[in-house]
Specification:
The complex is a heterodimer. Chain A is of the alpha+beta class. Chain A has a single domain, classed as SH3 type barrels, CATH 2.30.30.90. In chain A, about 15% of the residues lie in helices and about 40% in strands. Chain A contains 2 helices and 5 strands; from the N terminus they run βαβββαβ. A 5-stranded antiparallel sheet of chain A has the order 4-3-2-1-5. Chain A is globular and about 30 Å long. Chain B is an alpha/beta fold. Chain B has 2 domains: about 190 residues, Rossmann fold (3-Layer(aba) Sandwich); about 50 residues. Chain B contains 11 helices and 7 strands. Classes of the chains: A alpha+beta, B alpha/beta. The interface between A and B is small, with 10 and 11 residues.
């Protein structure tokens, strides 16, 4: 499953990061690496983007970005 | 009267102990504001956004109305000066970034200054409450230059959250001085000055932590490319990093290699140190 599939409040561990080049680099720089635990904090009224908590910082990702992050649900 | 009377003559000259004394060191700081003429050393300030970088900048230069304007194409650099232990320093505030490798203008400005501006010291301001996130940038800076001091800022806030960072171990792990600070309250400023002065003069030999590549194939490619870069740009201090950027398809570095601007990153011979 991907990060985009997680419901509000769920926690998951990153397994793999898709994408390439600058876009992928950006996610790595935001602290999203294989093994990182991410939780779903809140969702905008239209369902996109979604706020995720990554290493004690809340960051917003668009659905298409989140869909490139393969995760394993923790709860 | 005692034989060991302390006279002005006897206490006038600073001893070796003075160099490590915070009171002595802060008394040596002369804030020069925007006066940056005739400097001996250039110091760059790097760091993630919201780490108190500008607070550190103001604490050293005495400037107040400092607002960075780095967005878009019209990039103006925030600069100031200070004097410490008879040396004049020019301080440059780089834009706050999480990385030096992505494609935003801010990151390119910061990266290009560290690479081509050849600062004598780069101070990486890190947030003690979010150390893991902040070390990404610190390690990226260490990959480009070995003349680094890490300002471990916001230790007061970290303490309130029950976080105590072991600066000594971090110094050992990173191979460069790590100075705990609460810049807002002026704590750690004298120690930061002393560390910057020691790294600038070469009195503190740094041994920067460089991450190994886990992929033998990339390692082979880097090993093949690095000597070619060194041959084209003799004296380049970070040929291995340039090789990695080329292999990663970094277009701006590829351009700098092709048109020769990378030559600006070759360090000139060090300044003679006056007695």
């Amino acid at each position: 499953m991907t990060l985009a599939d997680l419901p509000l409040g769920a926690r998951a561990q990153v397994l793999a990061l898709g994408g390439a080049g600058a876009e992928r680099r950006r996610l790595l720089d935001l602290g999203i690496l294989p093994g990182t635990v991410i939780s779903v904090e809140s969702r905008s009224p239209l369902g996109d983007p979604t706020a995720y908590r990554v290493r004690d910082t809340v960051i917003a990702l668009r659905r298409e970005q989140a869909a490139r992050i393969t995760v394993r649900s923790e709860i | 009267m005692s034989e060991h009377l302390i006279t002005p003559e006897a206490v006038g000259a600073p001893t070796a102990h003075c160099a490590s004394c915070p009171i002595y060191n802060s008394a040596q700081l002369v804030k020069l504001g925007i006066d940056i003429t005739g400097y001996d050393y250039v110091v760059a300030l790097a760091g993630n956004p919201n780490t108190g970088k500008s607070t550190v900048f103001n604490a050293l230069t005495g400037l107040r109305q400092h607002t960075g304007n780095w967005s878009g194409k019209t990039v103006s650099r925030a600069e100031g000066g200070f004097r410490f232990r008879e040396r004049r320093y020019k301080l440059l505030d780089l834009p706050g970034t999480y990385s030096l490798l992505s494609t935003s203008t801010d990151e390119e400005v910061a990266r290009d200054f560290i690479l081509f501006g050849r600062p004598d010291v780069t101070v990486v301001v890190v947030d003690a409450t979010r150390l893991e996130r902040n070390l990404n940038l610190a390690l990226q800076v260490l990959a480009i230059t070995e003349r680094v001091v890490v300002a471990l800022n916001l230790v007061d806030e970290a303490r309130r959250h029950g976080i105590e960072v072991d600066a000594r171990s971090l110094t050992r792990d990173l191979g460069v001085p790590v100075v705990p600070m609460a810049a807002r309250r002026g704590e750690g400023v004298p120690e930061l000055l002393a560390a910057v002065a020691d790294v600038a003069s070469g009195a503190y030999p740094t041994r920067p932590r460089r991450l190994p590549l886990r992929d033998p194939e990339i390692e082979r490619a880097v090993a093949a490319l690095t000597p070619q870069i060194e041959a084209a740009f003799p004296g380049l201090p970070n040929a291995r990093w340039v090789a990695l950027r080329l292999l990663d398809g970094d277009e701006s570095i590829a351009r700098a290699v092709a048109d020769g601007t990378l030559g600006a990153a070759v360090a000139p011979p060090p300044l003679p140190v006056a007695a």
